[in-house]
Structures are given as C-alpha cells and as structure tokens.
Hints:
By secondary structure, this protein is α/β, with parallel strands linked by helices. It is 45% helix and 22% strand. The protein is built from nine helices and eight strands. The model is unreliable at 1-6 (pLDDT under 50).
Amino acid sequence: MARPQMPEGLYVSVSQVKSFLMCPRKYELHYILREEPAFVPVALAFGSAIHAALAAHYGAIKATGELLRRDLVLDVFRDEWAKAVEGPVPLQSDEDDDESSMDQIVDKGVSMLHAFSEYAGKMGKPDVESVEQSFAVSIYDPATGEVFEEQLVGAVDLIVREDGHRVIVEHKTAAKKYSLDQIRFDLQPTAYQLSARAMGLGEVGLRYQVITKTKVPAIQIAELHRDEQDEQDFLRTVGGVLRAVDAGVSYPIRGWQCRSCPYEHTCRGGAS
C-alpha cells in the first residue's frame, strides 16, 4: 500500500520539522534546493517495507474482517524491500549497522514480522477504522492566534476503536525498545492529537507499537499522553521553524547524524 501523497499548496510535516531541528542545512538541501540524495539509508527503506507489511495486515482486517495470512504479510515486506534495493538510488547502511548483507537484512525483517504475527494472533482482531489515513489541517501561532499559511500534513498509520474510543497507533521499528524520553518528547503523537481534533475525531488515544531489531525481536506497546502544554509547545516549535525557513536560516550541524545523511557529499562540497 503506497503512502499517501502530499496535497498541493503550502504545507509542513513533522518530518520536515524534525529535519530542520536536526540540521537546517540538510533541510535546505532536501526541501528547498531539492538536491538529489547520494543514497537512501537502509534503515529508512527497511522501516518503509515493514510499514507496508503492517498496512497490508491491518488493511485486510478492515476489508475482510480476517487476519492476512502470515506468508502474504511476509511477501509484502519482501516485495517492498526488493523495490528499494532495485530502485534508482542506492541503499547505504550506517557504519554501526549489524547487518553485513542484504540477505541478513531480509532475514531480520522476516524475524520481526514473525514476532509481530505471534503478538497479533494473541491479541485477536482489532476494530480497524482506518489504515494510512492522510490529513491536512490548519495550524496557528498560540501566542497571537495567527493561522499559518502552511497546513500541517501527514498520515496516521492506523486508527482502531476500542470500547467505542478511537486510538491512533503508530508503527515503529527500532534497534531497541523506546526510552522514556523518546516516548515522552516525540513531536509526532502531539501532531496526531491536534490533527485528530481538527478532523472531527474528538479526543483520541495515542499508542506506539514498536518492533525491535534485537536478536530476539520484541513488541513494545507504549500508551502515550499529550496535554495542552505539549500542544502549545508543538505549535510554537512549528511556528519557529517556519519563520526560520522564511528568513533563510541555514547552517550545518556536524555530528553523528552526518554518517547517515544522504546530502553530506553536497553539504561538504559547499553547493548552494
């Protein structure tokens, strides 16, 4: 299942905000100058293939009321991974990646999806309301009430109903279980909460479903909470990033993130 396309017009996503906060120069090269990346990080392609498999799993439940056979879930993962490997932009692993070959990466994905299938089988069939639900909602400056020109856009992995209450579920793959700080301070759930209300979904639950890449893959379920202060902080952060971008702010931040940056060659080369 393809990820939803972004709408026409001015917009900002959580991925864009995170990109700017990590390195304004990378943001400029990617989103403004539209430079061609030297490679696609393996972790990004791997996560996308796992997401596609999970979307197929939950999409089948929504469409038929039945669980998708495990072999078909694995086929979706393998097909998506093959597309990434054969794509026009080469894949590149981070130097800290454990996997030394593409076959080992596939084996790891299969192992993780087996663990997920075991977990899903024990949990039973959820009441799936939506899979890969895209959104585009207005956002504003909490200090002035000014509505930004840009809409906040994104796609929610999964919306389920539990006891008549909607829960937004975000799929994650990670080297290990999420830390308390990752769970507490990630911007994405806050964006989902704001967007759900703007879309008329009311107050929703928020959940991370993390599949770890550990030797024995595990499923981590994290129930999240975001309050009004979190929402105000999120809007201030987004507004600050938008104003910085409009002002032409761009500078590199050197660090560990450079190892897996597809734009380092351009950044180091001084392209404008």
